[in-house]
Each structure stands twice: as structure tokens, then as C-alpha cells.
Write a structure and sequence with these properties.
By secondary structure, the protein is an all-alpha fold. It contains 14 helices and no strands. It has one domain: Ammonium transporter fold, CATH 1.10.3430.
Length: about 425
């Protein structure tokens, strides 16, 4: 009879709670970056994922990700959590109840599509978003979860992703870029954030929740858990300092918004690596990620891609870069789960697998997202009308207003 590890179970419940907190944190982060007439319109998209994704996860999401032995996608053996009891043990390590694993992975499924919404803030109808939220999870997120974390063919090939560089950040980041290309630019691209303090609150909550995101991905309490925790903080801190330094040199002054953005870049980049790489590599990964993501955002601005909240430049580029760095710095001396050493310690094979996979995942997510939005537009209008955009999604879509002084423009009142 398997004995549940009480300490690991308690820690995983805490980690699930921390990851859940990241979705409201994202709502605050994005809400602060939006204009006064679009705060609620962007925040509701995060909270909608919190509710609707849970429904999908219960009905069939968990089963498609973590049941069956299909190479690409699971089956429906555990639909509606069939066969899961309070005594079921997660077979991956035999230390925690399966219901705890279900809850933890559900929180990942909730936040991943919510990340995308920052790219098309104040431009997409809520009906289209609801359809997008469903289809994107089923046809993009679930397959990559199964292929990498659910025993699918990428896992069998030897691909690793500690906490979601491929599964979460690369797919969401490049889906965001595709949505920008399909939906098009905002009418007013020069709008400014309504509340940088709100962004700071959301950023702090995200950083806090990320400890559950990364350290919790060990799925038990051991030395790898502690390493992942510290790697997360070190990479984020070095990325914060590096972003501020680059922006200071480039624009002549340090900015709080840049500092906060740099921390997210470092967190995204260390995510795939956290429990697989030595501590000394975290400063390298964090610093390089900040510089790379900073110039990715500069490139986006130069190319006039209207990724309003820099989802591609931070999450997409950060996730891809972090996954490639996993292929460089992963070592069995840190984690025996690694079958082949990274490029810095051994042959090129593992580096090749990680690089090919993250590029392939990014291309798939980009292509599918663009095609999916085009198909959704045949059924439900994706882009809001110019009048609705000028009015703001808070009133146009939801009939609510975040601030009393977020007045309706006279020409559309």
C-alpha cells in the first residue's frame, strides 16, 4: 500500500494555491497597463479563464492531458475525473494524491491562455474570446501538456520542460504574436497605462506565485524543490537589474515599468530550467533573458507589431530562450531525471532536441492561432468595431466602468 507523503502533499496544495493566485495577479498586471476604459475588459478575460478552464479541465481536459498512451493526445478514460477517488495516488511519484496533482496542473491550464490576452487588449469581442479560450486549450495547450508532461512522444524522445517554458510561455507568446497579426493594431497605439502602481502589485503577486509555479513542479519536497525556488528568485533578480541597466543606458533614465517587465522576463526564462540547471547558471540566464527580451520589445516597436502588453517579447522570447538554455546548462549532477547532459557538459543531442521542440511548438502555436481566429471570425466577429474600441470595452462589452472619470468620448456617447 502506498503511503502519501504528508509534507509533499501540503506543499503541493500550497503551490497550487500560489499558481492560482497568479491569474488574478495577471489581471492586475494587465489591468494596470490598459487604459481607463479597458481595465475591466482585460481583467474579465483572466477571471473568465479561472472559471471556464476549470469546467473544461473537469469535463475532459485532465483526461486528454494525463490519461492514455497516445503520442500526441491522451484519451477520455478520466473524463469527468472518472476513476479518480480520494485514495488515488499520482503515479508519477507515488507521494501525493492524484486529486492534488489534478488541482495543481489545472492552475497551469488556467493561466496559460490568459497570458495571450495582453497582446490584443481592447480589440477582441468577449464572445470570440470565449470560443478562442476553449479551442486554444483543446488544440494547442492540451497536446503539448500530454506530449511533454503526460508521457507523449516528446517525453519519450527525451524532451524536458521543468515548469512550462515550452508548454506555457513559448506557446502563449507566439499565439499572442499571431493574434496581433490577425486582429491588427489599435486605433490609438499611444495610449498610456492607467495605473503603474496596479502593475507593480500584479507583478509582485506574479513573482510570489512563481515560486509555486517553479518549485512546485518538482511535485514533492526535496533538494530539487529548493534549487528551483532559489534559481527562480536569482534569475528574476538579475533580469530586473539588467533590464533597468539597459533601459537606463538606452533611454537615459530607469523606469519602474521596465524594472517590472524585466522581472517577468527573467521568471519566464528560468521556468523551463529551474530544477535542471546549477545555481551558478541562473544569473547568466536571467541577465541574458532581460537583454534579449528588451531588444525583442524594441524590435516589436520598430516593426509596429501592436502587441500591446509585450506578451511575445517577454513570455514568447523568454520561454524560447530559457528552453534553449536548458539545452545548454542541464546536468545530471543536479537532477538525475536528465538522461543526457546539456551542451555545456556533454554532446549536442539534448540541446538539439530542446531547440527543435521549442521552435516547433512556437511555429505550431502561431500558425494554429492565426487560422483558428480566422475560422472563429466566420462564426462570431473577432475584432470590435471602431466605435466600440473608442468607447472602450468596459462599457461596450460589459456595461461597467472601473473609474468614474473614465468618461465616454463625446463623439461616441
Amino acid at each position: 500500500m502506498t503511503t502519501i507523503d504528508i509534507g509533499s502533499t501540503g506543499f503541493m496544495l500550497l503551490s497550487a494555491s500560489l499558481v492560482m493566485l497568479m491569474t488574478p495577479a495577471l489581471a492586475f498586471f494587465y489591468g494596470g497597463l490598459a487604459t481607463k476604459r479597458n481595465i475591466l475588459g482585460i481583467m474579465i478575460q483572466s477571471f473568465a479563464s479561472l472559471g471556464w478552464t476549470t469546467v473544461l479541465w473537469f469535463l475532459f481536459g485532465y483526461s486528454l492531458c494525463f490519461s492514455g498512451d497516445g503520442g500526441f493526445l491522451g484519451n477520455l478514460d478520466k473524463a469527468c475525473l472518472h476513476g479518480v477517488s480520494i485514495n488515488s495516488v499520482y503515479s508519477g511519484n507515488g507521494k501525493i494524491p492524484e486529486i492534488v496533482f489534478i488541482a495543481y496542473q489545472m492552475m497551469f491550464a488556467i493561466i496559460t491562455p490568459a497570458l495571450i490576452t495582453g497582446a490584443f487588449v481592447n480589440r477582441v469581442t468577449f464572445k470570440a474570446y470565449a470560443i478562442f479560450l476553449t479551442l486554444w486549450q483543446v488544440l494547442v495547450y492540451y497536446p503539448f501538456v500530454h506530449m511533454i508532461w503526460g508521457g507523449g512522444f516528446l517525453a519519450q524522445w527525451g524532451v524536458l520542460d521543468f515548469a512550462g517554458g515550452i508548454v506555457v510561455h513559448a506557446t502563449a507568446g507566439f499565439a499572442a504574436l499571431a493574434s496581433v497579426f490577425y486582429v491588427g493594431a489599435r486605433v490609438n497605439k499611444n495610449s498610456t497605462p492607467n495605473s503603474i502602481p496596479l502593475v507593480a502589485i500584479g507583478s509582485g503577486m506574479l513573482w510570489f506565485g512563481w515560486y509555486g509555479f517553479n518549485a512546485g513542479s518538482e511535485l514533492q519536497v526535496d533538494n530539487i524543490t529548493a534549487l528551483a525556488f532559489l534559481n527562480t528568485d536569482v534569475a528574476a533578480s538579475f533580469a530586473t537589474a539588467a533590464w533597468v541597466a539597459v533601459e537606463w543606458i538606452h533611454h537615459g533614465r530607469p523606469k519602474l515599468l521596465g524594472l517590472l517587465t524585466g522581472s517577468i522576463a527573467g521568471l519566464a526564462a528560468i521556468t523551463p530550467c529551474a530544477g535542471f540547471v546549477p545555481l551558478w547558471s541562473a544569473p547568466i540566464i536571467g541577465t541574458a533573458a532581460a537583454v534579449l527580451c528588451y531588444f525583442a520589445v524594441e524590435l516589436k516597436n520598430k516593426m509596429k507589431w501592436d502587441d500591446a502588453l509585450d506578451v511575445w517579447g517577454v513570455h514568447g522570447v523568454g520561454g524560447v530562450f530559457g528552453t534553449i538554455m536548458l539545452g545548454v546548462f542541464a546536468t545530471k549532477a543536479i537532477n538525475p531525471a536528465i538522461a543526457t547532459e546539456g551542451l555545456a557538459f556533454g554532446p549536442t543531442s539534448f540541446f538539439f532536441k530542446e531547440t527543435v521542440t521549442v521552435i516547433g511548438a512556437s511555429v505550431y502555436a502561431f500558425t494554429f492561432t492565426y487560422v483558428m481566429l480566422a475560422l472563429i471570425n466566420r462564426v462570431v466577429r473577432v475584432r470590435v468595431s471602431p466605435k466600440e474600441e473608442e468607447l472602450g470595452l468596459d462599457m461596450a462589452m460589459h456595461g461597467e466602468r472601473a473609474y468614474d472619470d473614465a468618461q465616454v468620448p463625446a463623439e461616441v456617447s
